[in-house]
Write a structure and sequence with these properties.
20% strand, five-stranded mixed beta sheet, single chain, alpha/beta, elongated, 10 strands
Length: 248
């Protein structure tokens, strides 16, 4: 493994859900200041949202595509082998360059591949400074596009990845406050049933491909059980009946 000076920096940059206008000024500056920008790609090779967003701000010659096998969800050994290989690739880049940025959709500290990369780099190249630049999350973007209010007053907010199973979502919906579901596209039928069972389908909204030409933002009541894009997001707002400021 290359000798990496302690001044080397790995920066996780959140580039938002897909709309290039939702990358922060700080995020753009970090991408442009980095020596190289790593973007995660699936082993199938197609351009992902992170890469497409990054290319609005930096040239292709600065972008390094690294396979993370993001479509691998069943074979843990194969998935971890891909993470190890990706970490070794980034470690070599850190040996060649002073600052490496890693672009991730959404926020680097919210269900992001960057978490696994940072842990791997900490083991492979101790002394590397790891930083993150926050990004706009899908739930924030969907709230803005749909008019759904995420929280008021003392309401809690629960974020559930439906990849954890429909029961986790049902448990959250049975509780107080707003519930946000990530990655529910492949379990759209179960999600619709959970919303109906808990009486929370009327105000709920879902969205996919936010900020992209194929964007869809629809009432959850229109869910018919047909499969949706994997990265679909759902907001089930808190049940509010106290009028303005009722939850203060």
């Amino acid at each position: 493994m290359p000798d990496v000076m302690s001044s080397s920096r790995l920066i996780g940059v959140g580039v938002g859900p897909g709309d290039p206008e939702l990358v922060t000024v700080k995020g753009v500056n970090a991408l442009r200041a980095a020596d190289v920008v790593v973007v995660p790609v699936m082993d199938t090779g197609e351009r992902g949202r992170a890469e497409a967003t990054v290319l609005h701000y930096v040239g292709q010659e600065k972008v390094v595509r690294v396979v993370f096998a993001l479509n691998e969800r069943t074979d843990r050994g194969r998935r971890e082998a891909a993470w190890d290989a990706a970490g070794e690739r980034v470690a070599r880049l850190l040996g060649e360059h002073g600052t490496v940025a890693f672009a991730t959709i959404g926020d680097p500290n919210v269900y992001s591949t960057f978490t696994y990369l940072a842990q791997t780099i900490a083991e492979l190249v101790p002394g590397t400074v790891v930083e993150t630049v926050p990004g706009i999350t899908a739930m924030q973007d969907l709230a803005a596009r749909s008019g759904a209010v995420l929280t008021e007053g003392t309401e809690p907010l629960t974020l559930v990845p439906v990849t954890a199973g429909a029961q986790a979502l049902k448990d959250a919906l049975a509780g107080p406050g707003t519930v946000v579901a990530y990655k529910f596209g492949r379990q759209a039928q179960e999600v619709a049933e959970a919303l109906r069972e808990t009486g929370r389908i009327d105000d709920a909204v879902w969205g996919s491909a936010l900020g992209l030409p194929e964007e869809s933002v629809r009432p959850a009541a229109e869910l018919d059980g047909a499969p949706l894009p994997y990265l679909s997001t759902l907001i089930a707002p808190a049940q509010r009946d106290g009028g303005r400021g009722g939850k203060l």
